[in-house]
Amino acid sequence: MDSVNLSIGMHLKESLINEVCKKMMKCVK
């Protein structure tokens, strides 16, 4: 797997988790 694609994938996943977390639990990291 491409390390660049892996980095982007991890970043997108992290962003998505943070979005959901803000909406549901209003947690701040």
Write structural notes for this entry.
Helices cover 76% and strands 0% of the residues. By secondary structure, the protein is mainly alpha-helical. It has one domain. The radius of gyration is 11 Å and the shape is rod-shaped. The termini are far apart. The mean pLDDT is 82.
Summarize, please.
With 29 residues, this protein is mostly helical. It is built from one helix and no strands.
Map the helices and strands.
Elements: H1 3-24
Low-confidence stretches: none
Radius of gyration: 11 Å
Annotation, overall tally of beta strands: 0
Strand content: under 5%
Helix content: over 70%
Order of helices and strands: H
Shape estimate: rod-shaped
Keyphrases for this structure?
29 residues; mainly alpha; 0% strand
